[in-house]
Amino acid sequence: MRAVVQRVTHGSVGVDGVCVGSIDRGLVILLGVGQDDTEREARWLAQKIANLRIMADDEGRMNVSLLEAGGGALVISQFTLYGNAQRGRRPSYSEAAAPATAEPLVERFCQLLAEEGVSPVETGRFGATMNVVIHNDGPVTLILDTDVSRSGRLKT
Fold first, then answer.
1. Which of 35, 38, 80, 156 is catalytic?
2. Residue from 135, 115, 134, 116 nearest 124 by CA
3. List 79, 109, 123, 146, catalytic entry
4. Which of 78, 109, 123, 146 is flagged as catalytic?
5. How far is the C-alpha of 9 from the C-alpha of 137, rounded, in Å?
């Protein structure tokens, strides 16, 4: 799984002009699912994101986790994170999971975030054309990838 994680003061997502998900202070998570991803990757990523110390403390330093800050998460499924533009002009998305595989893993990732204690966990609409509003805070943006290393451990 790949995630672009952005710290925000506000994030929302709309479909056909209707807001389907919105958070205030927290993280917007653009989430891509790869062909070989399983619940193992979803669980690791949810735990990692919930506990990353990237929220501002009282002195404005990145020293607090999303859980400690009491922020929410807005999760947007985004298969284009697996786009490969190494050759030609049109990206290949062959490394992205098929929708039948990706959708349940995105939903499971959201459940796992909630189980970690993140609240609220809002989402876009899988497979829809969405308009995402992101009010970056900082800006703070991280890219996380659960590709498995040769040792069998998940890499950050």
1. 80
2. 134
3. 79
4. 78
5. 6
pLDDT for position 147:
84
Residues 135 and 66: their CA atoms lie apart, in Å, by 16
Residue 112 dihedral angles phi and psi, to the nearest 5°: -65, -40
pLDDT at 145: 95
Taking alpha carbons only, the member of 63, 60, 76 closest to residue 27 is 76
Q: What is the pLDDT of residues 53-101, one digit of tens each?
A: 999 999 999 999 999 999 999 999 999 999 999 999 999 999 999 999 9
Distance CA(2)–CA(94), nearest Å, equals 15
Which pLDDT tens digit goes with each residue over 102-138?
Answer: 999 999 999 999 999 999 999 999 999 999 999 999 9
Q: Residue 149: its pLDDT value, please?
A: 45
Identify whether 86 is a catalytic site residue: no
Residue 148 DSSP symbol: B
Q: Is 79 among the catalytic positions?
A: yes
Comparing C-alpha atoms, which of 36, 35, 9 is closest to residue 23?
9
Per DSSP, 79 falls in state G
